[in-house]
Amino acid sequence: MKKIVVMLLVTFAMLSLVACGDSFEQGMKDAMNDTSQADRETEEESQEPETESTEPEEPAEQEPETAADQESQEEPAAVEYDNLQAVFLALNENTTPDELEKLISESELFYTAEEYNSSSGKKVSYNIAYTEGAAAQKYAEAGDHLTVDFGGDGKDEFMYAQYVNEKDVSYSALLYDHGTWFDFSDNNAEDYGGYYAVDSISGKGGITVKYSNGNETETGYIPCTSGEEAIQKIMERISE
């Protein structure tokens, strides 16, 4: 009986060892499978393409503007004209004697006006200046001055105006509409109305005036697009 019990115990023990061995072996296999699966997942993750960052880049910090930069962006200062120049710039082919006298009064300038005979008929000539002596019609004193002539039947049609600076009387600004003014005349073959810088010494470098009889003459009348340009040429000449 004891032998039978011993044999049963031995058999049970052997069966237990076999069962445990199978479980251990299966556990090892499962663990190895789990490790392989984890390795494959890790490898797949490492092979995924990198995505670019979608975060916007911060703009580069701009340096504050310096005083020099601000000055360079400012508009150039407006040119200032004296009272006599301002009157010249206010004139046009439609200006009347009354309008001229109002400009003179507002600018606190002196003037004289006299009537003369010309090839175009009678005309009234104004001489305007900063002093009474420089505004005289004859034997005028030295000084900046502006002459303006009117003609026509009523002697109220603007003909021309000439601004002269005392520092260089040989170079002047002219606004011409019609009438006889040195090389300009009523016999002009073309319309020469407009602004000019006049070089009265050289008599060259300007337009060639053509007359209705076919004659022509070279002048020192340099065309300008505006009265401001004509005066600017005078001031540049003076500053040379």
Structure commentary:
- The chain is α+β, with helices and mostly antiparallel strands.
- It has two domains: 1-44; 83-239, no CATH class.
- 35% of the residues lie in helices and 23% in strands.
- The chain is built from five helices and nine strands, in the order ααααβββββββββα.
- It has helices at 2-47, 67-73, 83-90, 97-106, 227-239; strands spanning 110-118, 121-129, 145-151, 157-164, 171-176, 194-199, 208-210, 216-218, 221-224.
- β3 and β4 (157-164) form a beta hairpin.
- The chain is globular and about 80 Å long.
- The termini are far apart.
- Mean pLDDT is 81; it is low at 17-25.
- Oligomer class: single chain
Order of helices and strands: HHHHEEEEEEEEEH
Radius of gyration: 52 Å
Poorly predicted runs of 5 or more residues: 17-25
The amount of helix comes to 25-40%
Distance between the termini: 147 Å
Task: Average the pLDDT over all residues and give the rounded result.
Answer: 81
Number of extended strands: 9
Spell out the blueprint of helices and strands.
Elements: H1 2-47, H2 67-73, H3 83-90, H4 97-106, E1 110-118, E2 121-129, E3 145-151, E4 157-164, E5 171-176, E6 194-199, E7 208-210, E8 216-218, E9 221-224, H5 227-239
Antiparallel strand pairs: 1-2, 2-3, 3-4, 4-5, 5-6, 6-9, 7-8
Please tag this protein with its features.
single chain; two-stranded antiparallel ribbon; alpha+beta; 23% strand; 7-stranded antiparallel beta sheet; 240 residues
Quick recap:
The chain has 240 residues and is α+β, with helices and mostly antiparallel strands. It has helices at 2-47, 67-73, 83-90, 97-106, 227-239, and strands spanning 110-118, 121-129, 145-151, 157-164, 171-176, 194-199, 208-210, 216-218, 221-224. It is built from 5 helices and 9 strands; from the N terminus they run ααααβββββββββα.
